[in-house]
Specification:
The chain is an alpha+beta fold. It has two domains: about 140 residues, Urate Oxidase (Roll), CATH 3.10.270.10; about 150 residues, Urate Oxidase (Roll), CATH 3.10.270.10. About 20% of the residues lie in helices and about 35% in strands. Strands 1-2-3-4-5-6-7-10 form an eight-stranded antiparallel beta sheet. The chain has a two-stranded antiparallel sheet with strand order 8-9. A hairpin with a 6-residue loop joins strand 1 and strand 2. Helix 4 runs antiparallel to helix 5. The structure holds uric acid. Uric acid binds next to helix 5.
Length: about 300
């Protein structure tokens, strides 16, 4: 029996990076949180304390800022690809790089009917996400969003469910449905490299719009059904996407019993609870989707 070093990876987590494009009076702004992760021949650092092959996480951070200055950010996906390709191509011990990016959206301030050139207001908790992996297996991009908080005040039911000795939930044919959606989608990709001309921003905006439209327009019999419709519509309308993964906490809004006060409550007063919450998850995929390879591999099993 031998004790061996198993999986390992390392990198710089959560570099806060804001890039301003100020070539014109009307500035552009992208606000990112960038995490780099390198995989490869780093065993000696763990086994022998040998740093000769270790590119410091500090250098990885500096690379992100230098690339942002030299080439711009573009979209999170483009920036992630540029960084991941660089680490794999130019840093000898690196066999695989994963770059995870969160983008925090800013809207231009409305300054009396016109959008201000260089003043923004933060859009809210919603975050755009991108995870780029470059390794021997090829290039993978997973785009997404998280903390997209939505609520509908009718058009949602939950009834006809399995009952057992522990079931107390009343059936409802009209309830509030709310969630804080996480969605991540994978591109089918024809080859081993991601093409340079993918309109990342436009695809993201379109997928987001489809998700919101389906949440709004489907008369929902359960959050499970809503997720299926969201995922199917996204793949229907985006042939370039192979798979979408959806995670939806059911942000319960419980009808308050106002009878003790002589009041009825026809779906008007709710207590919004934050825990516990139902957690509904689904992957929607094409049955002929190409293999995902390492697209989803965060190395999360390491922690
Ligand atoms: O949309 C729902 N799905 C469930 O599985 C569930 N379970 C529950 O208690 N409420 C709900 N709502």
């Amino acid at each position: 029996m031998a004790i061996v070093l198993a999986d390992h990876q390392y990198g710089k987590a959560e570099c806060r990076l804001v890039r301003v494009v100020r070539d014109e009076p009307r500035h552009e702004l992208r606000d990112l949180t960038v995490t780099t992760t390198l995989r490869g021949a780093f065993d000696a650092a763990y086994l022998d304390g040998d740093q000769s092959g270790v590119l410091p996480t500090d250098s990885q951070k500096n690379t992100a800022y230098a690339f942002a200055r030299a080439s711009g950010v573009g979209s999170p996906e483009q920036f992630g690809l540029a960084l991941a390709r660089h680490f794999v191509a130019d840093v000898a011990p690196v066999s695989g790089a994963r770059v995870e990016i969160e983008e925090h959206a800013w809207d231009r301030v409305d300054a009396g009917g016109t959008e201000h050139d260089h003043t923004w207001v933060r859009r809210g908790p919603e975050v755009r996400t991108a995870a780029v992996t470059v390794d021997a297996d090829g290039e993978h991009v997973v785009s997404g969003l998280k903390d997209l908080v939505v609520l509908k005040s009718t058009g949602s039911e939950f009834a006809g469910f399995l009952r057992d000795a522990y079931t107390t939930l009343p059936e409802t044919h009209d309830r509030v449905m709310a969630t804080s959606l996480v969605a991540r989608w994978r591109y089918a990709g024809a080859g081993r490299t991601v093409p340079d001309d993918v309109p990342w921003d436009a695809v993201h905006a379109s997928v987001r719009a489809v998700l919101l439209r389906e949440f709004a327009t489907l008369h929902s019999l359960a959050l499970q059904q809503t997720l299926w419709h969201m995922g199917r519509a996204v793949l229907d309308e985006h042939p370039a996407l192979a798979e979408i993964r959806l995670v939806a906490p059911n942000k319960h809004h419980l009808l308050v019993d106002l009878e003790p006060f002589g009041l009825d409550n026809p779906g008007e007063v709710f207590v919004a609870t934050d825990r516990p919450y139902g957690l509904i998850q689904a992957t929607v995929t094409r049955d002929d989707a190409p293999d995902a390879g390492s697209a989803w591999d965060t190395g999360a099993g390491l922690a």
